[in-house]
Amino acid sequence: MRLPDSGMEMGVGVKWSQTIQDKALIPGFLKEKELSELVARTTCCWGAGLKKEMGDLWLFLLLPLSAFHGVKGCLECDPKFIEDVGSLLANLIPSEVPGQTQLLEWQIKEMISLSFKVSHSDKRLRVLAVQQVVKLRTWLKNEFYKLGNETWKGVFIFQGKLLEVRQNLESKLKELLKNFSEVACSEDCIVVEGPILDCWMCLRMTNRCFKGEYCGDEDPRKAENREIALFLILLATVVILGSAVLLFHFCIFHRRKMKAIRRSLKEYLEKKLEELMGNIDEEEEKDFRLRK
After folding, report:
1. Beta-carbon-side half-sphere exposure of residue 139 (alpha carbons within 13 Å)
2. What is the pLDDT of residues 34-64, one digit of tens each?
């Protein structure tokens, strides 16, 4: 899907834009770093071993591609936007800056991965009006133009300003996604004007109301399956516990019954033995009398 073109004229840096289109369409997922960390990350490639560091950097950038191919954010759905970001940033960094290529690669990656991080942080932050996406991209380009009109004061200050731009962009994007989700997923089903963008799949939709997965709600089938599984688990638990109780009761009852039987048998045998001994005594007494 290609969003409406913002109409930005391509100036210097077209060659770099083509490189970005080929290599930078990789959704990032690194968290925002402090300025000191950004400086350290940038300066790691200065000096000796520049070629080796470049190879390691591209390897690091390309590793997530196999796992997250096709997964993007709201701003990355338009390849033209990626080209514009690369061109504008290329024009902002003087060519004589040490490690310019590595610095540019890092800043572009951080910028294009930001919307992925925001939209994938919450299931409800998935859909946004296309018109709002266009306005947000326009705002970002204007911020780049403002930076381009300022006097170059060094790489550290430049990175600090870009960090501030990214933080403002993240805040604006979160607010837009949250507000739009509240409107589109409301119970009153407020009508949403214009096409809608699914930031996860880069699909344009004409839906006026959203529910279920797009609003962070659980799939009814999954909920039903969970209820069935829970019922079966409870049923199996009751059966097992019932069987254990019955088995315990049967064992106790059987044991008591066997004790009673043994007791009765013992009493019966003792009684018979006493009778038998009594009969023997009587017979012996009779024999003794007859002998006298």
Report:
1. 15
2. 334 433 443 333 333 333 344 334 333 333 3
The vertex-101 CA angle with 100 and 103, nearest 5°, equals 65
CA-CA distance, 36 to 163, in Å (whole number)?
A: 11
pLDDT (tens digit per residue) in 109-167:
888 777 777 776 666 677 787 888 888 888 988 988 888 888 888 888 888 888 998 89
By CB atoms closer than 10 A (0-12, 13-18, 19+), residue 277 is exposed
Q: What is the DSSP letter of 125?
A: S
Residues 250 and 248: their CA atoms lie apart, in Å, by: 5
Tokens of 166: 């990214």
Global pTM value = 0.48
**H or E element in which residue 198 lies:** strand 196-198
3-state secondary structure of 66: coil
Q: Is the dihedral of CA 252, 256, 259, 265 positive or negative?
A: negative
How many Cβ atoms are within 10 Å of 75's Cβ, its own excluded? Answer: 26
C-alpha 77/C-alpha 119 separation (Å) is 12
Specify whether the CB–CB gap between 103 and 16 falls below 8 A. no
Give the three-class secondary structure for 30: coil
3-class state of residue 213 by DSSP: helix
Residue 199 has which token pair?
A: 């930031």
Q: What are phi and psi of 167, to 5 degrees?
A: -65, -40
Cβ(102)–Cβ(47) below 8 Å: no
Report how far apart, in Å, the C-alpha atoms of 237 and of each of 83, 169, 210, 261, 272 are.
Answer: 60, 53, 39, 36, 52
The C-alpha atoms of residue 216 and residue 214 are separated, in whole angstroms, by 6
**Selection from 58, 162, 160 nearest residue 114 by Cα:** 162
